[in-house]
Structure formats: structure tokens, C-alpha cells
TrEMBL record:
Entries under Pfam families matching the protein: Phosphonate-bd
Superkingdom of the organism of origin: Bacteria
Cleaved signal peptide residues: 1-22
Protein name, per record: Phosphonate ABC transporter substrate-binding protein
Classification via PROSITE patterns: PROKAR_LIPOPROTEIN
Keyword Translocase: no
Keyword set, alphabetical order: Signal
Length: 282
């Protein structure tokens, strides 16, 4: 019910351009900040706080492998998560592919692991199953749900895909600040289409929606650390994530997120995603 109210606020923004988008507050399972934990982990809002419980469960189990307290916290936007990492207010982050590429390009983030996804990581444009739309071009000027301005699958790629379809193609688009809320916007009739991450879409098992377009398979959302993080702590974090991800408890939480585990990752593919998207970023 709470998620529906917030999405209604976003829809009203389309009708009253002078009104700002509603604030999406930080809710359980995330604390607004982490001061007392030995390891602070910031999680980007790829899922709403309500839908991100598996992250809290997974990170809670990480404490056993690190031998110290782990606290997860969130921010409303990917840009705010980047600022937390830029200022050294978290030792580790779970971040979107494009936002991670921006941090790599600007020199303050390192990609240490990539998620091994159960489904290809790519952008999907979805509409209601019963709607008449069969391709992206038919959604011109319709209410449309993006996820975040720095989302690869939920914003940048759809804008790249729509190049040549008119500068006002997404004139009635709004941001929901998570992939599950973008899907809810279509299901609730607040948007005619939405751009989302396929991994989230498939792992949620959403019914009554249909895919009308999809983007290329890109490097999946990574685990990142500040570039100036102590090397010994960085190695401890990586080892602990890999160990915990292989346990039955870790596997259960990861599967709920559409992941099977983690693998070492290079930063250049993430930089390339950011560079590809620069021309359509706000």
C-alpha cells in the first residue's frame, strides 16, 4: 500500500509539473546512516527498501566470516550512494553497473567483484500484457517509468534506444527509484511502460506484463570499494563475500536477488557502459 501511494505521487507530478517528485524515505531494512559498525555497506536502490530484504539477510550473514559487525544502509538515489562512497562513509557498496562505471571513470571507486546472475543482465522495456503496444515507438508521449537517472537498464539504455524517435519521446517519464516500483507503476496503471533490469524482473516473477524491447547483455551490477580503502581490508571483504556466497544461507539470499554468487571483475567493462551512456545522462 505504501509503495502504491508513492507511485501515485509520481504520477501526480506528471499532471502538475510545478510539483516536485515525492521523497522516497529510507525505510527498514536500512538504517539512514551507519556509525557504529565495523564494516559499513551502502546498497543502491535497485530494489525498494521493502523489496531489498535479501540484501539485509545476506549481509547479516557476512558478519560471521568477517568477525565484526556489518551494517547496511541506503540512499534514495544512485548519485547519493556514489557520494557516500566518494566521501569514504562506507567500506563497500552494491551498485548499479552505470553508476559504478562513473565512479571508476572519476577515479574514486574500484570494482572488486561482479554478481553471477541467474538471468542475463540487460534492459527490458515492459508494458501491461493487455495493452496494445508492440514496440517502443508506440510508447511515444505516454507516461513512462524510469528507475534512476544513473541506471543503465532503467534509464540510459532506453534513452539510447529511443534516439531518432523524437526529443519529446519521454516527455511524460518519471523516476520511481527502484526497479520493482517501476514494475508496480505499470501494474497499477500509472505508467504505460517501464524500463527495468531483467535480473530483477525475472527474479520477482512478475505476471501480467510483456516485454516489447530489450537491450544488450552488459556487465552485471558489481561490488565496489573506495579506491583508497586499506588493501588488507579490501582483501578481507572479498574473501568473506566469496566464502559467504558459497554457503547454503548465502545461496538462499543470493537466489532471491537473481544471483548465484560472485566472481572477480575488471573495471574497464563498467567504464565502457558509462562512456556509452554519457550523451543521454542528465
Amino acid at each position: 500500500m505504501l509503495g502504491w501511494v508513492r507511485l501515485l505521487g509520481a504520477f501526480l507530478f506528471l499532471l502538475c509539473a510545478c510539483q516536485p517528485l515525492p521523497e522516497v524515505g529510507v525505510e527498514p531494512p536500512y538504517a539512514p546512516v551507519a556509525h557504529t559498525a565495523g564494516v559499513r555497506v551502502v546498497v543502491a536502490g535497485m530494489r525498494s527498501p521493502e523489496g531489498a530484504e535479501p540484501y539485509r539477510v545476506f549481509l547479516g550473514g557476512l558478519e560471521e566470516h568477517l568477525g565484526e559487525r556489518v551494517e547496511a544502509f541506503g540512499r534514495r538515489t544512485y548519485a547519493e550512494v556514489l557520494e557516500v562512497l566518494r566521501r569514504g562513509e562506507a567500506e563497500m557498496g552494491f551498485l548499479c553497473t552505470l553508476a559504478a562505471g562513473l565512479g571508476v571513470e572519476e577515479g574514486f571507486l574500484d570494482v572488486v567483484l561482479a554478481g553471477e546472475t541467474l538471468f542475463p543482465y540487460q534492459s527490458l522495456i515492459v508494458v501491461a500484457e493487455a495493452s496494445p503496444y508492440r514496440e517502443l515507438a508506440e510508447l511515444r508521449g505516454m507516461p513512462f517509468a524510469f528507475t534512476d537517472p544513473l541506471s543503465n537498464t532503467g534509464h540510459a539504455w532506453p534513452r539510447l534506444l529511443a534516439r531518432g524517435l523524437g526529443e519529446d519521446f519521454f516527455a511524460r517519464a518519471f523516476f520511481t527509484y527502484s526497479h520493482d516500483r517501476a514494475l508496480e507503476a505499470v501494474l497499477d496503471g500509472l505508467a504505460e511502460g517501464a524500463a527495468v533490469d531483467r535480473v530483477v524482473y525475472e527474479s520477482l516473477g512478475v505476471r501480467a506484463l510483456r516485454v516489447v524491447a530489450q537491450g544488450p547483455v552488459d556487465p552485471p551490477p558489481p561490488v565496489v570499494v573506495p579506491r583508497d580503502l586499506d588493501p588488507k581490508l579490501r582483501s578481507r571483504l572479498v574473501r568473506a563475500l566469496l566464502r559467504h556466497g558459497a554457503t547454503p544461507q548465502g545461496q538462499k539470499a543470493l537466489r532471491a536477488l537473481g544471483l548465484r554468487g560472485f566472481r572477480p571483475a575488471e573495471e574497464e567493462p563498467y567504464r565502457a557502459v558509462y562512456q556509452r551512456a554519457r550523451e543521454v545522462l542528465p
